[in-house]
Amino acid sequence: MRLLHTSDWHLGRNFHGASLLEEQAAALARIVELARDGAVDAVLIAGDLYDRAIPPAEAVQLFNDTLAQLREGGAAVVAIAGNHDSHVRVSVYDPLLARFGVTIRGDVRRAHEPVLVSPRLGGQPVAIYPLPYLEPAVDGPGLARELEEGTPPPARLRHEEVTRLALARIRRDLQGRPQQRSVLVAHTFVTGGASSESERELTVGNVDRVSVETFAGFDYVALGHLHGSQQLDGPRLAYSGTPLPYSFSEQYHSKSVRIVELDAVGQPALEIVPLQVGRSLATVEGGIEQLCCDPQFEAAVEARLRVILTDETLPLQAMARLRRRFPHVAELRHRPPERLRTTASERHQQVRQATSPLDLTSTFFADQQGRSASEAEASLLRQALEAAARGGQR
Q1: According to CATH, what is the number of the domain 2-274?
Q2: Each residue of 41-57: pLDDT tens digit?
Q3: Whole-model pTM above 0.90?
Q4: What is the pLDDT of residues 61-101, one digit of tens each?
Q5: Which residues sit opposite 131 in a β-bridge?
Q6: Would you list the domain boundaries of the chain?
Q7: Cα–Cα distances in Å, from 136 out to 40, 161, 165, 188, 341?
């Protein structure tokens, strides 16, 4: 059985105001190509299909077209709703689409109903369980009611607890399928995973974490939510990551999908396939004159760019000037040289030691600017003091 694991498409997302739809279309076309050329049996999409609950029409059309192309290539599709998706909207046609080899599961009450996919090359079907993102306050009470009679439900469920409750239902179904290979598709934050700035926080603190041990017993667990490609229990439990970078915190990610081959006993073998689509990200740092003229920054001209300006003061029209050379500047930060730091007692001592108006003025300048006056600035201070003295003598 050959599986293609992908997640967190976030269709309809912008990058600092710039539409990513064209690059997203290129990434999905690459996934379609990989599924077709690799004779993949099933494509697993582990949540966050869209970037928001009500996505733009163009994003919905892209998603629909991609599903159609995946099916034309012969792969079944199993997708789940993530925390960015509307569970009802994305899965409204699930009962109908499932008849044609496409499952989009948003209802946790059906998570224990597996999608049975038969390998193209023959062999026993694999049971794929689609477990959508779980919201403890919403999904927890219904799942807790299924506890054994006499067991009081927890007062407030965490992600770990609500996930265990949902998986208990799935495992009960799996017990009736002895010797059948099993795959879980889930959207959650597993303890030990590396996050980035792009993910939406699920909760305050670490109560959104779910332990690796929670997912024991499945041959492969296809995870979504974290945007970096990573594995947490060998090849068995892994995040595929996003197909494109969605913030500068993902600048050094290698965006990819995972091709997973399950052998006859369910042992997974893994191939990570880079997608290599979309505009690259880069960060450059320096003074504005250097950035606009120095040839060493030529490689960043076509990148989606974060600029850190180190000029002492923020130059006028900095973004407009930068965009003349770097048309895809997305973020501008100002990081001036670190200022001299003096305590109140040190400033008082400096004032007491001043022997002339120029010394006093220079001390004030240094305190306000965090540095000593340059030669040109010191000359201006002297001229101002001399002019003031001449005016006072009239």
Answers
A1: 3.60.21.10
A2: 999 999 999 999 999 99
A3: no
A4: 999 999 999 999 999 999 999 999 999 999 999 999 999 99
A5: 186
A6: 2-274, 281-334, 344-392
A7: 34, 8, 11, 12, 49
